[in-house]
């Protein structure tokens, strides 16, 4: 007898209910990863995510082998592969962890029905969230649209999780033919642009756990104070590990409780609340599945986005060549490392959607391709929030001023100097607005606007006024 464990974005052995359920059958367990063709989702992982996935699968296979098992990797239509594997091994059960993006949900429902019709027992398990998206609702049984109320309801419902540790040994998987090597999936870039990713990240369950311990034993104490300063490593950097399910939020919560008792007490409350924003993103994606491409607030469907020079401006933004230091620093950090600090994500997203009037969907797509933590729920939430058209959104008239944001959150210029080294010699006073510096000062700092560093592509004041005028048209 065999149970198939279909691993997708739960690339871990710790606190993995699908693995536990497969083991509980007492059968041989076949851990499988299926690389499905593009047609199964319009949200195929982008380049940075694929890089991460490759390393994470390698690490998972190593962890399985240490315990007497291994990862079977296959390529093709998910349903066909599962059916073939079941036929070949005589498997009677398939277990997997639930995913919530609309196209994957549809596919999984179809697969579940087909496998059940073929006589297999099929079970999906909750594993990626503290609460399933349907478990939290308003008194009127409606989904929440406001984070504070949503999170209050979550906190009230929180119980201490009891995550099950990774087993020491696993039953050997059945011998089967076929499958492909990890390299054959072609997840790594053909032209090697990934040096920055390699230097920055260490994917896999082991480092996810290590990072969590390090963060909870150190930085978390200053998290609420330092989390907004991009020049300081003050946040957990757990987002890509969470996205790929290398650690579960339940495990994180239990580690928090182990150390601090109450997860809503200082100094961890602010950090746990951010994990709550992730839950909120999934709650919204589940209940409003159209939102990766359409504004939650329907008023914004007819927003008068810019039509001139959009391609060129989008390219300059993507490449960190807007002439606005805080924006360029963020976009260059993203390109180099596959990550951008949250404060700066808001600044660059506001600049794109408001100062340039370029649709948030274009920005979200670029993030999707370049972020190692690209996540349909959190990315959609972040972009719609900043653009002002989502749940609990920043009001549209709130246009982040990248100069003020820089002065406030990067006061010593550490962040901008790191990513825009051509501005390094400018004094702090002008670092966030080089165009305001006297010519002699620019010259002595070796800065020539339009040559060594771009002149600002828009006037911040005028473009803000244009954005507010556009908003007046949809305000109703
Ligand atoms: C425009 C925009 C796009 C974004 N796109 C993504 C994305 O694709 N994937 C992604 O994981 N996050 C996204 N975020 C949210 C946030 O920026 C990142 O989760 C955070 O920067 C990750 O860094 P960290 O792990 O050090 O976070 P920490 O500050 O240490 O927070 C801990 C965890 O909480 C979660 N979290 C924190 N802030 C948020 C938030 N605002 N929304 C949802 N979850 C949050 C993450 O899982 C994070 O790992 C986006 C935000 C914006 C404004």
TrEMBL record:
The protein's required cofactors: (6R)-5,10-methylene-5,6,7,8-tetrahydrofolate; FAD
Q: Main EC class of this protein? A: lyase
Enumerate the PANTHER family for this protein: CRYPTOCHROME, CRYPTOCHROME CIRCADIAN CLOCK 5 ISOFORM X1
- List the EC numbers from the record: 4.1.99.3
Keywords on record: Chromophore, FAD, Flavoprotein, Lyase
Q: Which family does it belong to?
A: Belongs to the DNA photolyase class-1 family. Belongs to the DNA photolyase family.
Cofactor details (free text): Binds 1 FAD per subunit.
**Residues that coordinate or bind FAD:** 223, 271, 373-375
Q: What is this protein called?
A: Deoxyribodipyrimidine photo-lyase
Question: Which residue ranges does the record assign to the Photolyase/cryptochrome alpha/beta domain?
Answer: 1-130
GO-annotated biological processes:
photoreactive repair; response to light stimulus
- Which superkingdom? Bacteria
Which reaction equations make up its catalytic activity?
Answer: cyclobutadipyrimidine (in DNA) = 2 pyrimidine residues (in DNA)
Q: Which organism is it from?
A: Thiorhodococcus mannitoliphagus
Hey, where's the site called Electron transfer via tryptophanyl radical on this chain?
Answer: 305, 360, 383
Q: What does this protein do?
A: Involved in repair of UV radiation-induced DNA damage. Catalyzes the light-dependent monomerization (300-600 nm) of cyclobutyl pyrimidine dimers (in cis-syn configuration), which are formed between adjacent bases on the same DNA strand upon exposure to ultraviolet radiation.
């Amino acid at each position: 007898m065999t149970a198939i464990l279909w691993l997708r974005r739960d690339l871990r052995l710790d606190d993995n209910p699908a693995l536990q359920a497969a083991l509980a059958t007492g059968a041989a367990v076949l851990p499988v990863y299926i690389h499905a063709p593009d047609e199964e989702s319009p949200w195929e992982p982008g380049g940075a995510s694929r890089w991460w996935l490759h390393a994470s699968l390698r690490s998972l296979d190593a962890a399985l082998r240490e315990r007497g098992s291994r990862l079977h990797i296959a390529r093709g239509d998910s349903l066909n592969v599962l059916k073939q594997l079941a036929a070949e091994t005589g498997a009677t059960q398939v277990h997997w962890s639930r995913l919530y993006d609309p196209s994957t949900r549809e596919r999984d429902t179809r697969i579940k029905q087909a496998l059940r019709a073929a006589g297999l027992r099929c079970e999906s398990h909750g594993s990626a969230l503290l609460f399933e998206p349907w478990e939290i609702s308003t008194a009127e049984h409606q989904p929440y649209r406001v984070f504070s109320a949503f999170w209050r309801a979550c906190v009230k419902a929180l119980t201490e999780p009891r995550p099950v540790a990774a087993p020491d040994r696993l039953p050997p998987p059945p011998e089967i033919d076929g499958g492909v090597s990890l390299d054959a999936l072609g997840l790594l870039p053909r032209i090697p642009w990934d040096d920055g990713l390699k230097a920055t990240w260490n994917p896999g369950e082991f480092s996810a756990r290590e990072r969590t311990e390090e963060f909870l034993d150190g930085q978390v104490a200053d998290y609420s104070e330092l989390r907004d300063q991009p020049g300081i490593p003050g946040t957990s950097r757990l987002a890509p590990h969470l996205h790929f399910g290398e650690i579960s939020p339940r495990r994180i919560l239990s580690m928090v409780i182990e150390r601090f008792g109450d997860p809503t007490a200082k100094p961890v409350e602010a950090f746990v609340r951010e994990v709550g924003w992730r839950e909120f993103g999934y709650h919204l994606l589940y209940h409003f599945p159209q939102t990766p491409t359409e504004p939650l607030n329907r008023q914004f469907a007819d927003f008068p986005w810019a039509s001139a020079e959009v391609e060129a401006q989008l390219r300059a933004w993507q490449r960190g060549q807007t002439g606005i230091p805080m924006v360029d620093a963020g976009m260059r950090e993203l390109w180099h490392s596959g990550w951008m600090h949250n404060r700066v994500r808001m600044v660059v997203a506001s600049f794109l959607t408001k100062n340039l009037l370029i649709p948030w969907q274009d920005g979200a797509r670029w993030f999707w391709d370049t972020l190692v933590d690209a996540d349909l729920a959190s990315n959609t939430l972040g972009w719609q929030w900043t653009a002002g058209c989502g749940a609990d959104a920043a009001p549209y008239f709130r246009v982040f001023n990248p100069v003020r944001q820089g002065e406030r959150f990067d006061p010593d210029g550490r962040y901008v100097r790191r990513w825009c080294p051509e501005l390094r010699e400018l004094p702090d006073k002008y670092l966030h607005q080089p165009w305001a510096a006297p010519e002699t000062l620019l010259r002595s700092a070796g800065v020539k606007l339009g040559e060594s560093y771009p002149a600002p592509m828009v006037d911040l004041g005028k473009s803000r006024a244009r954005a507010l005028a556009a908003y007046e048209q949809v305000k109703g």
